[in-house]
Amino acid sequence: MAALTRIRALVRKDLLQLLHNKSFVNGILVFMILLNLAYPCLLTFQVRDIAVSVVDHDRSTLSSRIVRDLSQAGQFSFDGVYATHEDALSAMYGGRVDCILEIPPDFENSLGRRVMVQTASLPRMHLTTNAINTTKAIPATQCVTGCAAQTIRDFAQDKGLTVSQPSDNITVTNAYNPFNDYKRVMLPIIILNILFCFNTPARLMSNEHEYGTIDQINVSPMNTLSLMASKVITSLVVCLAVICLSTVLLWLVYGFMPEGSILLMLLAISLFIIGVSGMTLILCNCLNNGAQMIMYSSILSLFAQIASGYYTPLECMAGWVQWASHIFPTRYVVAILRNISLKGAGFADLALEFICLSGLSLLYFFISVLTYRKSRS
User: Fold this and answer.
1) Model-level pTM greater than 0.85?
2) pLDDT for residue 355 is more than 90
3) Contacts from 264-269 at CB under 8 Å and sequence distance 24+?
4) Which of 18, 108, 219, 308 sits CB 3.0–4.6 Å from 62 for a disulfide?
5) Beta carbons of 129 and 139 less than 8 angstroms apart
6) Mean pLDDT of the region 80-100
7) Same domain, 228 and 161
8) DSSP reduced 3-state for 314
9) pLDDT per residue over 271-305, tens digit each?
10) Looking at the domain assignment, is residue 26 inside a domain?
11) Do residue 231 and residue 364 come from a single domain?
């Protein structure tokens, strides 16, 4: 009971310190509003306004239809038709063009000489893509080639030719995200406020050093377990409050509503907060400066976001990165939240992720207790 009384007193002190810190409270409000309102619109892999130009050596009806379809497609910004490939490259060098589609001579005539048309057997058009930004270049290449191939198939059918294209018999259905809306994928992760969850325990330890209360705690009979538990509980209370407000804000603005259990999501988020609080406290125990605690916790949060599959699928990363991602709670909580919010998965479907997340959270908490030294602080 004495230990619980000490933990309750420390939690109350930490909460009062945070609430009386106007810069922290204002920072929470600004951060939460900007993150939740702007981030879903800023962070998207839906490529639009692809600047496309065409070098037409064929000057035929088919090439004119390709130019027309590219200029009318919504995802393209048509720059025009250039006489030579060098002129188009100059436009790409100047930043006006992202893709250059070069149509070879005698392209339409080669199509007319075939009874059964296979797009792969036609004289090859050449596509040059500005690959400085590969995030835009890869989908841009797919969009341009897909649009040109569709135009060729339509033109061949108008001429009464048989078009051999296996993909024409495929109907695509986007499971769990019918309209392939990227916001639906990102919103469950945005409510985590990963950077804030890492910075909050670092802020608490920084306040102890800034206000000088850490010296009083070190000379008191307070044990290390009570001190670390108070920081984790305070972080849990503050982060859960911010996450709940973020969820309500996302519901009001974007209509976000998970398919699965909200209580199960809160359980996963709580375990995640305990885990990242433990990681941050381990880092803070190795430092004696409050500014360093804030800075290094922010750096740690960046690694955690990268290793979570938040931006890029883990399967696309190097093998050692996939292995290293297992030590970050973000890997498991991201998978849990996406499956619950989009798929409506239950606890039985995510039992392994919950076990790993719980184990990491407890491990990091006890390591933070073992690494704290009063003499060092």
Assistant:
1) no
2) yes
3) 264/340, 264/346, 264/347, 265/188, 265/336, 265/337, 265/340, 265/341, 266/240, 267/354, 268/333, 268/336, 268/337, 268/340, 268/354, 268/357, 269/192, 269/240, 269/243, 269/333, 269/337
4) 108
5) no
6) 88
7) no
8) helix
9) 999 999 999 999 998 887 878 888 888 889 888 88
10) yes
11) yes
Residue 131 corresponds to which tokens in the numbers above? 């690959």
15 and 106 assigned to the same domain: no
* Cα-to-chain-centroid distance, residue 173: 23
Backbone angles phi, psi at 81, to 5 degrees: -105, 130
**pLDDT for the residue 236:** 93
Backbone angles phi, psi at 145, to 5 degrees: -65, -40
Q: Which amino acid is at 366?
A: F
The domain of 275 spans 2-43+180-371
Which two three-digit tokens encode residue 204?
Answer: 């608490």
d(CA 139, CA 91): 21
Q: Is residue 190 part of a domain?
A: yes
Same domain, 266 and 282: yes
Residue where the block lists tokens 């080639």: 145
Closest CA to 123 of 109, 137, 133: 109
- Residue 327 DSSP class: G
175 part of a folded domain: no
**Continuous H helices in the chain:** 2-20, 22-42, 61-72, 85-93, 107-112, 134-158, 182-190, 194-211, 213-219, 224-254, 262-285, 290-306, 319-324, 329-338, 351-371
Q: How far apart are CA 344 and CA 266, in angstroms?
A: 14
